[in-house]
Inverse folding.
């Protein structure tokens, strides 16, 4: 019985969650979550038999596998003491399920492995049951957050743009939705979804399916929006403001709710706060647009917005930053370096010029567009050059315009690269090319102005074949300059200025790894050629 | 005549009836619950009936010999006791399915046989002399 292992399917490799697999080492046992085969035993109708029980001790660090060989005594007086017919217990006729025995048969034969009566008296049952209980009572990603009566709702448009109140908020799913709702001044106190109470009324369950611990939703801030759109933040936050009719207006209508949920690593919710935007409607208003948002933060951490975990996710901004110069120390080969400094605005770390509506470079208000991973972008503007412009000043202005105020030095290679791991960040290399056409006779050495900035981001697929992660390998910023010819005064010229971002996939084609072919190991005996060698 | 031997024969008779019915019931139970092919069922049943006949004969001869104080029936009963003991051992060890209840019943029967054979020998010795 100790050598039998039902779950050992792969030869010479460790099977996952197979505690009886002889190919697994202690390090691999510590990675298991449960034992898929808890007990291996013979027929339970025998009076006395050996049973091998396998269990995982999750209390120890790292978890270890406990193997016990115990004797199981069947207390039944009709247990088989000896079976002299060798094939006796191999041919059991299966029990026909009746309505009474169905549940018991389902429990015994319904899962992937047939369970025996051992399940009820396994030795470490207490610790295993409690750890299972803890497993199920925590929130996992995407699970609807439960409240006392139903779940936390985030009204969102379903088919049309009208709000549907049945959309649950998923745990750790940051969402923002906008939808329209029909309102009228007469019914404003009866429509539930425009009153603050609807959103903070029921308390959230801290653990999934456990009603013992509940978290009340606190009101974090209230912003009042007047009819012409002016928003003011109210000082006293804790007062609940319900819709009321005042002078033909209905005030304190909820126009926006923003939930902030704080959770722990164990999947429990410990705090919930809601910020409201309240507004007013007039008699003529038929519908209002409500916006809802929910965001999650882990307790005791500062949230650094990641652009992927670990590989970049298409559409999330590329993370970039600076590294301040380390002071060279008197000791050789050591340099006091520091980490990467990033801007807190996650959309402002690596940006390109955003085309303005009037196409004029110098009148552009400095709007920048964030570089999103995987999205090739091109933008530009037109520069009007008059004779009076001074070249050097123009060149510097254009360079600032193209690169922006804080053009970063380093780009994160993974979406979740930490600021302190400097080696995880890729330096941006700069190239300068020139549009100058060399005409052999006339060599114009006029000054150059930058006319285009092209950022090429080379990325590769990294990791496993089934779940490749995007990793940035190389970032090159190429500034192309063109000569500025002197214009006769009074004339002016427009020069197009462009900036673009290109993402190139330089991943090498995937090579599946095969196991080595088994070789035939044939060796002649040592003294095969005895008399001669 | 030995009173204890007579009592033992009487008790043995009653116990054997119980033993026979219980073993028969258990063979029927085993044939339903376990896989009991006919080639194994037949010898078990045959041997059980043979044992019943042997037992009846043995008890009759033994009690007749004890009451009439003759050695011949007692001696024959002793020989038959050996046969019955062998059959009892069969039902204890070599039966197709030996359940714990079988073990208990057969062990008690074997113990009774042992006691009986000792008392029979004593009785024969007493009658011969």
């Amino acid at each position: 019985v100790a050598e039998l292992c039902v779950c050992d399917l792969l030869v010479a490799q460790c099977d996952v969650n197979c505690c009886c697999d002889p190919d697994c080492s202690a390090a691999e046992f510590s990675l298991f979550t449960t034992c898929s085969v808890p007990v291996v035993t013979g027929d339970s109708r025998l009076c006395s038999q050996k049973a091998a029980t396998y269990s995982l001790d999750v209390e120890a660090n790292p978890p270890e596998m406990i193997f016990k060989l115990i004797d199981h005594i069947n207390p039944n007086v009709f247990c088989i003491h000896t079976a002299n017919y060798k094939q006796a217990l191999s041919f059991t006729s299966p029990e026909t399920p009746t309505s009474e025995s169905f549940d018991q048969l389902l429990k015994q034969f319904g899962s992937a492995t047939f369970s025996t009566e051992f399940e009820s008296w396994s030795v470490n049952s207490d610790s295993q049951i409690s750890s299972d209980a803890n497993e199920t009572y925590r929130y996992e990603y995407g699970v609807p957050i439960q409240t006392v009566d139903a779940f936390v709702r985030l009204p969102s448009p379903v088919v049309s743009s009208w709000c549907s109140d049945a959309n649950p908020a998923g745990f750790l799913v940051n969402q923002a939705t906008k939808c329209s709702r029909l309102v009228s001044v007469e019914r404003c106190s009866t429509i539930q979804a425009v009153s603050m109470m609807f959103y903070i009324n029921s308390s959230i369950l801290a653990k999934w399916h456990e009603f013992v611990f509940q978290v009340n939703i606190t009101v974090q801030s209230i912003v009042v929006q007047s009819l012409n759109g002016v928003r003011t933040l109210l000082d006293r936050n804790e007062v609940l403001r319900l819709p009321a009719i005042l002078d033909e207006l209905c005030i304190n209508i909820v126009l926006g709710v923003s939930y902030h949920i704080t959770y722990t690593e164990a999947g429990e919710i410990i705090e919930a706060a809601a910020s409201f935007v309240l507004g007013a409607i007039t008699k003529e208003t038929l519908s209002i647009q409500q916006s809802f948002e929910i965001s999650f933060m882990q307790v005791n951490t500062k949230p650094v917005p990641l652009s992927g975990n670990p590989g970049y996710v298409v559409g999330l901004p590329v993370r970039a930053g600076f590294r301040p110069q380390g002071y060279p120390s008197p000791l050789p080969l050591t340099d006091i370096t520091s980490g990467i400094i990033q801007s807190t605005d996650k959309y402002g770390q690596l940006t390109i010029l955003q085309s303005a509506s009037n196409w004029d470079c110098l009148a552009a208000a400095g709007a920048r567009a964030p570089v999103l991973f995987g999205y090739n972008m091109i933008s530009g503007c037109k520069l009007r050059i008059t004779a009076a412009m001074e070249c050097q000043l123009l060149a510097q202005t254009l360079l600032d315009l193209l690169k922006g105020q804080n053009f970063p030095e380093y780009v994160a290679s993974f979406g979740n690269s930490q600021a302190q791991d400097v080696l995880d960040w890729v330096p941006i290399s700069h190239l300068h090319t020139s549009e100058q056409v060399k005409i052999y006779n006339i060599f114009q050495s006029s000054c150059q102005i930058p006319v285009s900035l092209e950022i090429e981001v080379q990325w590769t697929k990294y990791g496993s074949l089934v779940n490749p992660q995007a990793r940035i390998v190389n970032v090159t910023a190429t500034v192309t300059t063109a000569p500025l010819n002197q214009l006769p005064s009074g004339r002016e010229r427009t020069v197009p200025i462009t900036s673009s971002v290109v993402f190139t996939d330089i991943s090498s084609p995937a090579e599946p790894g095969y196991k080595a072919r088994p070789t035939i190991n044939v060796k002649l005996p040592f003294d095969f050629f005895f008399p001669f060698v | 005549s030995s009173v204890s031997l007579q009592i033992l024969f009487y008790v043995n008779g009653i116990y054997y009836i119980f033993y026979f019915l219980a073993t028969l019931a258990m063979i029927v139970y085993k044939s339903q619950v376990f896989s009991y092919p006919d080639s194994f069922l037949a010898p078990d049943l045959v041997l059980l009936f043979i044992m019943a006949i042997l037992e009846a004969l043995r008890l009759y001869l033994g009690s007749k010999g004890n009451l009439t104080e003759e050695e011949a029936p007692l001696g024959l009963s002793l020989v038959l006791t050996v046969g019955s003991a062998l059959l009892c051992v069969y039902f204890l060890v070599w039966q197709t399915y030996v359940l714990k209840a079988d073990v208990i019943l057969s062990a008690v029967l074997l113990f009774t046989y042992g006691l009986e054979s000792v008392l029979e020998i004593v009785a024969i010795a007493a009658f011969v002399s």
Remarks:
- DSSP finds five helices and 25 strands in chain A.
